[in-house]
Amino acid sequence: MSVSWDWGTVFYRPEMVVDAGSFSKSPIKPKLVVEAWRKKWRDLPIESFVPIQKSDLYSVHDKEYVNAVFNLTEDNGFGTRSKKINDSLLFTSGSMVAAARYSLSTGKVGISPTSGFHHAGWDFGNGFCTFNGLVLAAREAVKRGCRVGIIDGDMHFADGSEDILSVLVLPVIKHVTLGKYFHSPIHAKEYLAKLRGMRDEGWFKSVDFVIYQAGADVHIDDPLGGVLTTKEMKERDRIVFEGVHEAGIPLLWTLAGGYSTPISKVVALHTNTMQACIRVFQ
Hints:
By secondary structure, the chain is α/β, with parallel strands linked by helices. The chain is built from 8 helices and 7 strands.
C-alpha cells in the first residue's frame, strides 16, 4: 500500500531489540512491529538516531538508582541484572527522545516503536519498565517551553510516571493514565467517553505537544488486560489522533504493552494504530 509519509517518521534501530527471556515480549516487539509495518507499507520512513547517555536519565530518575542499574548492583525492571537488557534501554529511550525532537522541530508525527516505560519511577523499576522514556520525552518538550499532554492508553496505571512527576513537580505536564480508571469491558463506553470529552472540552488545545502511549494490552482478550474490542481500540486511536490533528500540534506516539499469544495478535493491534494514524494525518 502506497502512503505519502511527509507527515511523520518512525525512529528505529536494531539495538533497541533484545531477548529478555521474560513473560513480556516487549523487548523484541520493535523488530516484529517494524517488520509488519514494512510489509504493509513498503515505503515506511525509518530514521536512525543517537542513543541517549546514562547521564541523560538523571533528569527523570535518581542518579544513584540509574548508576546502580548500569553497575549491575540493582535489578532492572525485569528483575534481572543483565548488561544486554540495560544497554538496549539507551536505545529505547533514545528512540523516544529522537522522535520527540523530530516532532517538536517539524510539527509532524514522531513514532517510537518501543515499550517498557510507565512503571519506572523516580528511584525504582517494575513491571518490565526500568527507565521512563515517556517522562524523558516530555522533559525534552518542557525544555523547549512547551505544555505537554501525556495520554497513557496502556491497560495499567502509570504508577512510575506519576511518581516521577510528583518529584519533579511540573504543572506544565498534563498526565492522563487511563489505566487508573478503566479495568474491564463494562468500562468500554466510559473509556471512549473520557477521550471524547477531552477532545470536546479542549484538552488537546490546552497543550503544545502530545505523547500518546497506544497500549495493545487494553484489548479485551489480552491476558493482562480486557477493556476494549478491536473495533473500540480503533475508535480510541481515531479520537486521539483526530484530537491532535484538530489542535494542530506535534505528536509522539509509542506502543506500550501487549501480552496476547501468539505475539502476532499484538503486532496486528499496533498495525491498526498505525493505520488509524495514516488515515488522520495523511
